[in-house]
Amino acid sequence: RRHVLEASQQLTEIINSCLESEPSAESLEPAGNTDPAAEEESALHCLWVDKFTPQCYLELLSDDYTNRCLLKWLKLWDTVVFGKENAVKKAKPSTAARPPFSHPKEHPNKWKTKVQLTEEILEAELDQHKRPKHKVALLCGPPGLGKTTLAHVIARHAGYNAVEMNASDDRSPEVFKTRIEAATQMKSVLGANEKPNCLIIDEIDGAPAASINVLLNIIHRKDVEGEAAGGTGRRRRREGGLLLRPIICICNDQ
């Protein structure tokens, strides 16, 4: 064990010396009021998975098709969350102009990539409130694949404040419902940089059936309520209104 610790310490010092010798963008930025000794101390005790975790979309090493599909789905919320009408208006003519040309010949669809076809399907499935048809994205895979990292990086990349909750910890359906509504309806107050929330529910496969039903009721009940335009305002205020924030669920066993 002592030999392993010594070898690990030597390897850490070699990596740190190599990183310090390379000019990086971080070294060009002003240090501000940070304490170098405190940063060095925290870096020595920081796990490698935390020290070298991806900070932006281009640093992701996971499957590119999954990354692009999740980012495309999250950007479809821009009209509702950020009020960006131009992006949707540009997408609609492009999708509407292609089908007439593809009716006589199916060659255009033959040369489209899998990502392009998926993006067109996602854009075509918007509801009457200009939200994606599927309100929840589900990331599945074995532990250590990078699902949580992917969700956080893409949420920040799309301009959201990532709010994470663990479905296995909140066993009570009432607490589960309260936390979902708080994350999807309340704004995050971060000084002047106020961003909308993107809810990330980890270990959704460990949640009880009652909590899953709560999540489904929040989605389907409000969809039906939005379609029924004749509903009373009192009932709408009591049930909380439409779901206007994206939700990303993560599980190991689909």
From TrEMBL:
Family statement drawn from the similarity comment of this UniProt entry: Belongs to the activator 1 small subunits family. CTF18 subfamily.
Task: Tell me if Nucleus is a UniProt keyword of this record.
Answer: yes
Give its localization: Nucleus
Q: What name does this protein carry?
A: Chromosome transmission fidelity protein 18
Q: Which GO terms describe its biological process?
A: DNA replication
Q: Which PANTHER family match?
A: P-LOOP CONTAINING NUCLEOSIDE TRIPHOSPHATE HYDROLASES SUPERFAMILY PROTEIN
The GO molecular function terms of this record are: ATP binding; ATP hydrolysis activity; DNA binding
One Pfam family name from the record? AAA
- What start and end residues bound the annotated signal peptide? none
For this protein, the record's Gene3D superfamilies field holds:
P-loop containing nucleotide triphosphate hydrolases (3.40.50.300)
Q: Which residues form the AAA+ ATPase domain?
A: 133-245
Task: Show the GO cellular component annotation of the record.
Answer: nucleus
